[in-house]
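To: structure subgroup
Subject: Chain for Friday's discussion

All,

I'm putting the inputs and outputs inline so they're searchable in the archive.
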Amino acid sequence: MATETTPSPEDIIHRMGPAARDAARQLAGSSREARDEALRSAAASIREQVAELLEANARDLEAAKQRGLGGAMLDRLTLDGDRVEAIAAGLESVAELNDPVGRELARWQPSNGLDIARVAVPIGVIGVIYESRPNVTADAAALCVKSGNAVILRGGSEAVHSNRAIYRVLADALEASALPAAAVQMVPDQDRALVGALLQAHEYVDVIVPRGGKGLVERVQSDARVPVFAHLDGNNHLYWHGSADPTMAIDVIANAKLRRPGICGALETLLVDAGAVEHLPRLVDALADRDCEVRGDDRARAADSRIFEARAEDWDTEYLDKVLAIAVVDDPAAAMDHIQRHGSRHTDGILAGDGAVAEAFLARVDSAIVMHNASTQFADGGEFGFGAEIGIATGRLHARGPVGLEQLTTFKYLVRGSGQTRP
């Protein structure tokens, strides 16, 4: 219970919110050069403070191991020299991107003689609630600052020391620049009630971006009183058509499943065309060599005895681990029907040499990202050329797929006249 000396969660958010609003207004009028310089300064500080960041991360990893967190979660949490360098490089890459603010999206002159322009502007204040990955602290802050938005960050308790260490670097870089320090704020403790207060703060926060497990996203989507950019899970599929080159297909499937099994772009279900079943033993060889468990339907198991029996729930499961479900289908229509019934509309793809079959699949599969002859692990803002991403969105309005700089802007109309009055 709050006392006279202990602010309530609502008090804390109501203090942070107005500061974020003021910072957002200042950012919207700032120059690209100032925003870019702040990001480059933060990147330089990240490189200078590698030892401190790794020490903070080691504290998180030790606590996570004591709590019994699994391999996929530990992989998301872990920082090493290469990953810290990737954080710094990510800040610099965002700084190099074109300024998304002020872009003229359209311009026209109707018969009344007015000159009307539609221009990109920042959304305002972004709330980011995330788990596990410390790099999200830097990615989210960089994208928001670059796009002229203020951001309120709330990371997961498993990465609290890493997140705060990265945040301090970012805050110092802003303070040393001409930008408002409140442009990037971090919720001061891990009290879950602060999440609820942030989700209710519609007078201060314009959009919430959750990035984490299904439980987190479900809570955000259920409780938020502001719009949400999110995906619930990444139950991603590849359809292996009989026209695909089998060597290429096996390479792509193995990468999609095993490069990093714990990310939202990882492959979870493989749909194998009846015309490609003969190649399944080669695929199982490649997966077994890397300790991947394969579960399949009766037709898949008939092709290779090493495939375990799939349960009904396997078709709806985001494993985030070295497990792959395989179903054999008769044709592209059956594959698309399976994706429609079981997919999460995150990332789905086709492996095919037949261009007509591939184009029909690309046109008809209703997912945020649809791929042809490519690993689902490319479902990433950095790989799309966005520099970084703040998350993946599977909704239909405004942002869909990787949420990068462009998706963190909205627009307004600038109307210029010469004294017109309306008759």
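Points worth raising on Friday:
The two ends are 61 Å apart (CA to CA).
The chain has two domains: 9-229+403-416, 236-378.

D.
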